[in-house]
Amino acid sequence: MPIGFIDELGLEIPIFQAPMAGVSTPAMAAAVSNAGGLGALGLGASSPEAARQAIRETQALTSHPFNANVFCHTPAVRNSARERQWIERARPLFEDFDATPPEQLREIYSSFSKDDAMLEVLLDTRPAVVSFHFGLPRPDQIEALRQAGCRLMATATSVAEARQISASGLDGIIAQGWAAGGHRGVFDVSAPDERRSTQALTCQIASEIPLPIIAAGGLMDGADIQRALDWGAVAAQLGTAFIRCPESAADEAYRAHLASGAETVMTSAISGRPARCLVNRFTAWAEDVPVSEIPAYPCTYDLGKALNAAAKAQEETGFGAQWAGTGAARAIPLAAGDLLTRLEAQRRAAYRRPRP
After folding, report:
1. Which CATH number belongs to the domain containing residue 62 in this structure?
2. Which end of the chain, C or N, has fewer beta carbons within 10 A?
3. What is the per-residue pLDDT across 33-59, written as a single tens digit (0 to 9) for each?
4. Residue 199's domain spans which residues?
């Protein structure tokens, strides 16, 4: 088993904090890394300038490795008729909050594969780990980051995607199961999604591909983490477990909804890509909307963000992108470093426990 990946990063605890764009912060990433795990920054929605600032702030708070995550989605294939229909479909929602929807949708995020300004930020700041979601960057970008000394990982939701990651020469694979919160890391949204459990996906990738596997999806406590290691992973990646930490950027409504025991649902209506979210007014409105009528990512997200802003201005918090995995109700409000220590203690206890 390629456990050297953890050793080479100098980690004391086999726990990775998920990047969680919009939720993770330099304080969170640094706290996790300082406690012996691998903290992370979600930079996929950031401008190069904001990404540089976040990385520098994190480097000022920790001398330990952390992960800088970027999005490698295929740029949007625009369909003006579909976008107009989407705007009109949502108009009554905006009117409920005395607002009007945007006149047209914008492609609000650039793909890293097309954004060499973001590449220059990473080459300049040199985070120890760079990870990719929604696909892979160009070969020349991979080589440049390798030459800069960065260790590289990417998310796979299938064995086929894991094979592509391996063939690209990356150092590790994040096996994202169906239970994971936030955006599915699928490379091609038009292809069927196998919807594999974290266990099934981790076991299959580990049995076939000789790269370090990081299990992700539905893992909330130390016993879950130990099970992931038993499946063949070298570490477990947790996101939802950190949302209620004081270092999180999640607002109070998001935290309260997470604590309420709400169910989760996979939806493409908020952003244009499938993502697991706490059930709320937005997901209920979109429940019967055919995926074929939803505009491309991230254009759909432009409207989703505008709708959430209009709703929050009227003190309605049910239209946020409240991403969460299936174990959402098990998240606890604990400082990130303390949470990591607790998770590792639980994991060690589970490891020592006699197996049936």
Report:
1. 3.20.20.70
2. C
3. 999 999 999 999 999 999 999 999 999
4. 4-73+109-249+331-352
